[in-house]
Amino acid sequence: MSHIPQEHGILVVFSGPSGAGKGTILKRYFEDYPPAVLSVSATTRAPRPGEVDGVHYHFVTREKFEEMIEHNEVLEYNIYNGNYYGSPRGPIEEELSRGHDVILEIETNGAGHIREMYPSALSIFVMPPSFEDLKERLTSRGTESPEEIEKRLKRGREEMAMALDYDYIVVNDQVDTAARRLSEIIRSARWSKKFNQHFIQEVLKNA
Questions:
Q1: Would you state the pLDDT for residue 83?
Q2: Which residue of 62, 67, 172, 197 could cross-link 178, Cys pair, CB 3.0 to 4.6 Å?
């Protein structure tokens, strides 16, 4: 007699261009669809006013971060403005083993490394309704110069071309709808063959 597989944690790779609304979608998702965990990155930069260690980032020394790299304790990392940023392996694997979904908000370059290390990871890319909509969102922030906005748009074009490498896309035309789409994707993926190979083999073994 076979048994329905127990629910297991899914590692979700969540990417999208600047201005697509990734953070806003995740905020609504965590409000409406718990339990799930947002992975907290590690960095060697100093905390900014109001930032809390373990909440906004795991703040570590450069020596500690390089030690983590040497011992394969980060799933991916990059260097920005002279500081390391990366995803600690330990907390992610611990949450997954508890059956919690872990969402990793990450750039497209790091996402490629994660997919290589975790072929079973679920990858989701956030798309704006249109390129003009993305441009309007970045401009309306009023926090960046026209030159900086153009750089983000150029990078956004490159990133959106990489959306074809992801399992799913979520179009952020309306935040509530986008958060619901994210929930539906994760719920459906839980029963895909990708996450149930062991269960399938167990059934066949006793056939």
A1: 95
A2: 172
pTM given for the model: 0.87
Per-residue pLDDT averaged across 105-126, rounded? 90
User: Judging by DSSP bridges, how do beta strands 42-43 and 83-88 pair with one another?
Assistant: antiparallel
The contacts of residue 64 (CB under 8 Å, 6+ apart) are none
59: left (phi over 0), alpha (psi -120 to 50) or beta: beta
Mean pLDDT of all residues belonging to the chain: 91
How far are the Cα atoms of 5, 52, 140, 207 from residue 159, in angstroms, in the given order?
A: 36, 30, 21, 46
Which amino acid does the sequence have at 1? Answer: M
pLDDT given at position 207: 83
